Amino acid sequence: MKANERRDVAAMDDRKLEVLRAIVEDYVATQEPVGSKTVAQRHALGVSAATVRNDMSYLEEAGYIHQPHTSAGRIPTDKGYRLFVDRLGKIKPLSAAERRAVHRFLAEAIDLDDVVTRTVRLLSQLTHQVAVVQYPSLNRSSVRHLELVSLGHRRLMLVMITDTGRVEQRQFELSVELSEDDILELRKLINEQLTDKPLVDATRIIGGLVAQARPELETAMAELTRVLLDTVVARPDERIAVAGAANLARHQAYFAGSLRSIMEALEEEVVLMQLLGRTDSGALLTVRIGDENELDDFRETSVVSAGYGPGSVVGHMGVLGPTRMDYPGTIAAVRAVARYVSEILEQNR
Amino acid sequence: MKANERRDVAAMDDRKLEVLRAIVEDYVATQEPVGSKTVAQRHALGVSAATVRNDMSYLEEAGYIHQPHTSAGRIPTDKGYRLFVDRLGKIKPLSAAERRAVHRFLAEAIDLDDVVTRTVRLLSQLTHQVAVVQYPSLNRSSVRHLELVSLGHRRLMLVMITDTGRVEQRQFELSVELSEDDILELRKLINEQLTDKPLVDATRIIGGLVAQARPELETAMAELTRVLLDTVVARPDERIAVAGAANLARHQAYFAGSLRSIMEALEEEVVLMQLLGRTDSGALLTVRIGDENELDDFRETSVVSAGYGPGSVVGHMGVLGPTRMDYPGTIAAVRAVARYVSEILEQNR
DNA sequence: GTTTGGCACTCCCGGCCCGCGAGTGCCAGT
DNA sequence: ACTGGCACTCGCGGGCCGGGAGTGCCAAAC
Description:
The structure is a homodimer.
Chain A: H1 2-11, H2 14-30, H3 36-42, H4 49-61, E1 65-66, E2 75-76, H5 78-88, H6 96-107, H7 112-127, E3 130-134, E4 143-150, E5 155-162, E6 167-173, H8 180-194, H9 199-207, H10 209-212, H11 218-234, E7 240-243, H12 246-250, H13 252-255, H14 259-266, H15 269-277, E8 285-289, E9 301-308, E10 315-322, H16 327-348
Antiparallel strand pairs in A: 1-2, 3-7, 3-10, 4-5, 5-6, 8-9, 9-10
Helix pairs in contact in A: 2-4, 2-5, 3-4, 6-7, 6-16, 7-16, 9-11
The first copy, chain A, binds a DNA duplex through helix 4.
């Protein structure tokens, strides 16, 4: 199969590829099947419509395009889009104005929440599609600071700040009452052990905390330990922001029946993580086209996603739309935004 | 006009009202215009279809129902729904199983964020509609505690906790470096002044803070003051949670063209606030039907909303759907959930 | 005078047919 | 290998029609 595809591509001369590009570009622009005449005219290939027809029947044979019905033009298949993305699409960089807008808009962000909110809006506006941004994964962050605040009685609040700027906060109640000094002591102890440690190691470290507390504080520390573990482990990556769902409505005809299930999926963090997460190892940017998404409801959907983070990848962001989307433009937008957000995180570190 | 309507209602005998109820109920159930025969048969009125026809033509004259076209059945108008809601709909309380589910699901919430998230999901599931929940308004809350945390260098974090459990957090940078003791001093000062004060008074109090700080800390306090004001005033009510947007897709036919603009509106906090906020003064529960919403995009939409809070109202929650919705069921659900959430907030106070 | 059965009328809906046009595949000629 | 020509296919929109649901009105009955 793999060898077969290779031969297909190799056997195709440049003009056939050019025809495929023309079909993809026109179809994306007009949303209508594109015929041989259109291709021959609009894209100065220097050949007649008949020649284009021959190429098209070849491309159809090879599985890159297909006809919705006998007397219609051609539409790219998922395989066709794939080839286009891999070898034909020349990524068009954002315009200077767009770049400036991105920088200005993101530079105004005051904290991580704000960065994420602005990012997701920006992506959806740039691409006119649904945008999804995952908050920096706790698994890949380190603790910058832990704070323990008394709320009166036995009620406490634990605030954890990571090096990516993420703030997790959690209220709980202890079975014993602690003095302000006790709290300070516990806070100091926890901070000494956890500060600058990556969260993946936290589970281990937290386990050892109880042993280090003064005997009087052991009960409290044990309870605190449970809350810590809960905060760190039990809700690992779950935060995700979505924007631009209204753009789905623009493609109503396209999504037809699946609109509802897609919207349902957008409210499920697990599903979103799946869509974003399965990045090709190492690749900076991933495009998953139609069938390549395992989920049934997304068979007519493409996802363009990129990792971001200061130095290493701490989260993913992406854009979701119909398979017939403007790949070069979307790829450029996602890449540019991911890069710039990474820069911001780098600076704030 | 008002007098006119009064007379209309008064002039209608019970059977005419019964016919209107039958039309509303059937139309909501079937989504299809309902004819005289159906009404006469399904709802044991003890009269013939012809009689029902007379009543219907009266109801149409009075503006409670109308025909989409000459040879079709009748559909309630907004005015018809209004009368139904005000005088005809017998609110059917939730089933015991539903009530248990509500209690169980909400009781598990661990903090305010969790309460809101669970509430909005619950509402959308109970009603099969879009649910919207406003976080407790800062304007109507009091400060329970303020915390000032050093993040190293000159970077600080301000955490504010209100009596409704809402936690606002904000990072910022001072122009001067403070010692741990300085920070504690400032924190103490701020807490003394603000704890248990309603946030509406905060602006005034904050203004006086700088004067009370030691001269060495004046600069820092001035800067801090600005951050405080920003946190308290500049982002007053803005947090809103939405769930069940996928339910809009179920009513695709109904919303037709406006689907997109409705979805856009759902991403705009300002619009959502408008929809929820304009509560009739004092009323525990508000139903706004079709035209009664000022926004054009919501002419075919009804909103059922209720205030909630411990004792006094601190926020609103509601459900949004097509005008042809199950009002009795929706009203019951919104009311039950709002009450129970209020109870929870009361307990946590 | 309220209710009822009867009846003519209206008009939507779905099915059907048909002509147009876009697009194709094939072939013979360059 | 490319091209022009040509017959063919088939979706789409428009027009037509018959069935059916629902109405409004009227005259008779209670």
